[in-house]
């Protein structure tokens, strides 16, 4: 575990020693995201909760052998994803990630009507450019209501997009960590993130108008 | 990703994530940055995207259900070395 930050090494040691507060801290930190990720793979919330339980058992039973070649977070989410996939197969539900992502019916990031058409001057340039938000009333962007708009928009996204934007922008995972946790390619991760962010931006623009 | 000419606004909004992720090759990055210099609409768009990311970062994850939390703690106590 030499490669791990000291704080993470202490956490692993505490867990191995059976320190319940260390376990609670980890569950508090990763539990909610684990539940969301599990929910992408299986048929119901109840099954997702079982997957999370099973994954934590896997974490506990494996922590003695954890070598720290990846971060603890990445390792935990790999166990979760593998557990969820195994469960999905057992449920007779093999889930192609692309299907979850809902690629087919995703349009462009911005409504094409907002750009000049091919027969106009400067085709492809803004006809209705977005306004600056820096002039918005102080703090409006970070007000509770605005955050509700974001939450509602994320809830409407296809599950894979919702999970990727939550992991990246809300929980602070980096791109590699998301790819590892979800077992997807860099390109796939970026496309999902792009679609998700584009839609959330659009929802905010409408709301802030 | 190769762009053989000037970037349009419609193209830029599709490149913005790759730009922010810093994975555009140097030529494309330069084209995007040149475009941003003269285009207020796209500068605003980029700024909106950054603001969106920052605001999403303020969301709080909801806790896992209490019943699940209890089951996990019970499993931990079973597992923990006495």
Task: Give the arrangement of secondary structure elements.
The complex is a heterodimer of chains A (209) and B (82).
Chain A: H1 6-16, H2 20-41, H3 45-62, H4 72-90, H5 97-101, H6 144-156, H7 159-170, H8 175-182, H9 186-208
Chain B: H1 9-20, H2 26-38, H3 40-56, H4 66-79
Task: Please describe the structure with a list of short key phrases separated by commas or semicolons.
heterodimer; A: mainly alpha; Rna Polymerase Sigma Factor, Chain: A; Butyryl-CoA Dehydrogenase, subunit A, domain 3; 2 domains; B: 82 residues; Arc Repressor Mutant, subunit A; 4 helices; 68% helix
Q: Could you please describe the fold and organization of this structure?
A:
The complex is a heterodimer of chains A (209) and B (82). By secondary structure, chain A is mainly alpha-helical. Chain A has 9 helices and no strands. The radius of gyration of chain A is 21 Å and the shape is elongated. Chain B has 82 residues and is mainly alpha-helical. Chain B has a single domain, classed as Arc Repressor Mutant, subunit A, CATH 1.10.10. The longest helix of chain B is centred in the middle third of the chain and has 17 residues. Chain B is elongated, with a radius of gyration of 23 Å. The N and C termini of chain B lie far apart (57 Å). Chains A and B meet through α2, α3, α6, α7 and α9 of A and α1, α3 and α4 of B.
Strand content of chain B: under 5%
CATH topology of the largest domain in chain A: Butyryl-CoA Dehydrogenase, subunit A, domain 3
Helix count of chain A? 9
Helix content of chain B: 55-70%
Count of strand segments of chain A: 0
pLDDT under 50 segments of chain B (min length 5)? Answer: none
Question: Any idea how many domains of chain A?
Answer: 2
User: In sequence order, what are the helices and strands of chain B, one letter per element?
Assistant: HHHH
Report the biggest beta sheet of chain A as strand number plus sense, adding barrel if it closes: none
Shape of chain B: elongated
Query: How would a crystallographer describe the biggest sheet of chain B?
Result: none
CATH topology of chain B: Arc Repressor Mutant, subunit A
Q: What do the pLDDT scores of chain B average to?
A: 91
On the 0-100 scale, what is the average pLDDT of chain A?
Answer: 89
């Amino acid at each position: 575990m030499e490669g791990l930050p000291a704080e993470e090494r202490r956490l692993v040691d505490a867990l191995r020693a059976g320190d319940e507060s260390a376990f609670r801290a980890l569950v508090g930190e990763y539990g909610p995201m684990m539940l969301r990720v599990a929910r992408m793979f299986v048929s119901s919330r109840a099954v997702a909760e079982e997957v999370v339980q099973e994954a934590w058992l896997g974490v506990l039973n494996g922590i003695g052998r954890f070598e720290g070649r990846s971060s603890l977070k990445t390792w935990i989410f790999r166990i979760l994803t593998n557990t969820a996939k195994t469960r999905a197969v057992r449920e007779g539900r093999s889930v192609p990630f692309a299907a979850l992502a809902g690629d087919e019916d995703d349009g462009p990031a911005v409504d094409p009507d907002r750009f000049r058409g091919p027969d106009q001057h400067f085709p492809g340039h803004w006809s209705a450019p977005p306004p600056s938000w820096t002039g918005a009333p102080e703090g409006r962007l970070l007000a509770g209501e605005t955050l509700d708009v974001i939450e509602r928009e994320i809830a409407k996204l296809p599950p894979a997009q919702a999970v990727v934007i939550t992991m990246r922008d809300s929980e602070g995972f980096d791109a590699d960590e998301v790819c590892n946790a979800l077992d997807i390619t860099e390109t796939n991760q970026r496309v999902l993130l792009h679609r998700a962010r584009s839609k959330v931006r659009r929802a905010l623009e409408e709301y802030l108008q | 990703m190769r762009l053989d000419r000037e970037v349009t606004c419609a193209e830029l909004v599709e490149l913005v994530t790759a730009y922010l992720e810093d994975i555009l090759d140097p030529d494309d990055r330069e084209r995007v940055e040149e475009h941003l210099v003269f285009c207020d609409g796209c500068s605003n768009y980029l700024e909106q995207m950054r603001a969106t990311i920052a605001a999403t970062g303020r969301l709080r994850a909801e806790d896992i259900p209490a019943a699940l939390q209890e089951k996990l703690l019970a499993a931990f106590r079973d597992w923990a070395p006495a």
